[in-house]
Amino acid sequence: MRPLWKIPQDEPVGAPFEPGARHDVIVVGAGITGLSTAVMLTRAGLDVAVIDAGAVAELATGGNTGKLSLLQGQRLAVIRRHHPASLVRAYVDANREGMDWLTGFADTAGVPYTRHADHSYAQTADGLDTVRAQHDAAREAGLPTRILSSREVEESPFPNAGAVVLDDQVAIDPVRVTRALAGELLTSGGTLHTGIRVTGVHALPEARVETADGPLFAPHIVLATGTPITDRGLYFTKTHGQRSYCVSFRVPGDAIEGTFLSVDGPTRSIRPVSEADGPGRTAQLIVGGNGHPVGRSESEAAAVDDLVSWTRRWFPDAEETHRWSAQDYESHNLIPFVGAMPRGLGRIRFATGYAKWGLSNAPAAALRLTAEILSTPRRERPRWMTTIGTRLTVPADLGRGAVEGGKVAAALASGWTEAESRAVPVPRPEEGAGVVANRAGRPVGVSTVDGVTRAVSAVCTHLGGVLDWNDAECTWDCPLHASRFAPDGTRLEGPALRDLRPLPRDGRPD
Ligand SMILES: Cc1cc2nc3c(=O)[nH]c(=O)nc-3n(C[C@H](O)[C@H](O)[C@H](O)COP(=O)(O)OP(=O)(O)OC[C@H]3O[C@@H](n4cnc5c(N)ncnc54)[C@H](O)[C@@H]3O)c2cc1C
C-alpha cells in the first residue's frame, strides 16, 4: 500500500554518513516533528543533523490525510471532559501557533494548500450531543465555531445528522511540505542522513546516538520517532498506537466542499484533493478511518475494504487510486508529551502523542523543543507552553493508563496461548497471509509475500509480545506497544529497536 502523496520525484537525498561526526543537535526522525524542529534550530544558527531509518516522511507524516485544523473532530470536548478550560485553551493556542508556523513556512517555500470549512459531524442523531459538546468546548477555547444549518445538512452527499463547523482551516500535501522542510534544512547547511537506523541513545558519558554504521555526537538529541525509541520514562505505557486507513478516489463532477471528521463511529475522515493541492493529482477525494489499536484487529485488509464500500455507496462513480495505512500515538493524558526525557540529563528530548493531529501539534512541539534547547527565558515563551508544561495528571489519565495496561496484559497472555495451539511445521501460508505457530514452546511467524515464504521469531524484540499478522500491509505487528516488522523480520517502527530473528523457512528448529 502506498500513499497518494508519495510520488518518487523530488525525494530529498541524504548525505553520506560520517561515523563519529559532531553536531550541535541530532534529530532522530525525518517526519514533521523532526524536520520542523531541525528547521527552527537551523534558523537560530545551530548545526543540526537529522537521521532517519527510512526516507523523509517515511511513516505517519507520509501516510496522513493532510488536514490542518484546530477543530479536530471531538478532541476538544474529550480533553475538556477531563481537564480545566485553561488547558483546552492552551492546547488550541499551541495548535494555532503550530498551524500558523507550518502555513507560514508553506507560503515562503511555495507549497500549495487550500482553505476549507472543517466539520466535526454526527453520522446519526446519537452523535449530536458530542457535536454540541465539541461546539461548547471550542467556543470556550476561543474558536468561532458554528452549527451547520439544516439546509447544509440536507445537502450532504453522505449521512450527516448535524455538524459543528470551523471555517478557514487547511488541507495540504503532508509529504510535499515535509520534503520542503528537508530542502530548507539542506540549503541552510544542515545535514540529512536517510536509511540509517538509530539503535541506541545515550546521555553519558556524552550524548550520542548509535547506529550500525557508528555513533554521532551532539550535546542535544531530539527523538522525533513517533514513539520514543528508548524506554526511559516508559512513554510506551503512557501512550497507545492507533493504526488507521486512507483510500483516495477519482470522482467525476465537483469535489466535495469542506473537510469532515465524524464524531461517532465508525470513524470517517473526508477531504477533497484538487490541482490546487499540487499539480498532477490523480485523486479528488480521500476517505479515511476505521482505526484500531496496532496489532489488535481481525483483518486490517477488511478495514480498508470497508472504507472503499462506504465510499462507493455514497459516491457511486468513485474510482480508487491509492490505499494506505499509518499509525499515530495517543497520550493517556490526552495532551502530547513534549520535552526533556527523564534520566536524559536534559540532553535527550522527545515529542509524542498527537492523537492523529500532528500537522499542527508537531510544529507546536518543535517550537517548545527549540525554546528549551535555545534556553529561551520562560517569560519570553508563550503562555500555552507553560500551561501545557505544568499540567497535572488527573485521575482519569491514570484510569485510561490502567485500562490500556489491562488490554496489553490480555494481548500478551492471549498471544502466547494462541501460539501454543498450532505447532510447526505449518502448511505454506497462501500469498499475503501469515500464521503464528509453536516451535518448541516459542512462537514462530510464517508468512508468504511476493511468492517468498519466510519464518521469523514472532516475539517482539521490545517486550516479548506475540506478533499479529497485518494482512493489509503484510507485516508483523505487536499488540502490546505497536512495534512493526517486515516479513523478513526487519524492524519498521515502534519502540522496538532490533529486528526479529530469521528462522528456517518452515519454522522447524535448526
Ligand atoms: C491515518 C492517519 C491520518 C492522519 N491524518 C492527519 C491529519 O489529517 N492531520 C493531522 O494533523 N495529523 C494527522 N495524522 C497524524 C500525523 O500524521 C502524525 O501525528 C505526525 O505525522 C507525526 O509526525 P512525527 O514526525 O512525530 O512522526 P513520524 O512521521 O512517524 O516520523 C517518525 C520518523 O522517525 C523515524 N524513525 C523511527 N525510528 C527510528 C530509528 N530507530 N532510527 C531512525 N529513524 C527512526 C521514522 O522512519 C519516521 O520517519 C494522521 C495519522 C494517521 C495515522
Beta-strand share of residues: 25-35%
- Give the radius of gyration: 22 Å
By helix and strand content, what is the structural category? Answer: alpha+beta
Structure ligands: flavin-adenine dinucleotide
Number of strands: 26
Distance between the termini: 34 Å
Protein described:
The radius of gyration is 22 Å and the shape is globular. The mean pLDDT is 93. Helix content is 28%, strand content 27%. The protein has helices spanning 32-43, 75-82, 85-109, 128-140, 150-154, 174-187, 300-314, 358-373, 383-389, 395-420; strands at residues 25-28, 48-52, 67-68, 113-122, 146-147, 162-172, 191-194, 198-202, 208-211, 214-217, 220-223, 239-250, 259-262, 268-272, 285-293, 319-331, 337-340, 348-352, 434-439, 442-449, 452-457, 468-470, 475-477, 484-485, 491-493, 502-503. It is of the alpha+beta class and 510 residues long. The chain contains 10 helices and 26 strands. β22 and β23 form a beta hairpin. α1 packs parallel to α6 (174-187), α1 (32-43) runs parallel beside α8 (358-373) and α2 (75-82) packs across α4 (128-140). Strands 3, 4, 5, 6, 12, 13, 14, 15 and 16 form a 9-stranded mixed beta sheet that branches. The protein has a 6-stranded mixed beta sheet with strand order 7-2-1-11-18-17, with helices on one face. It binds flavin-adenine dinucleotide (FAD). The site of flavin-adenine dinucleotide (FAD) has 41 residues, from α1, β2, β3, β12 and β16.
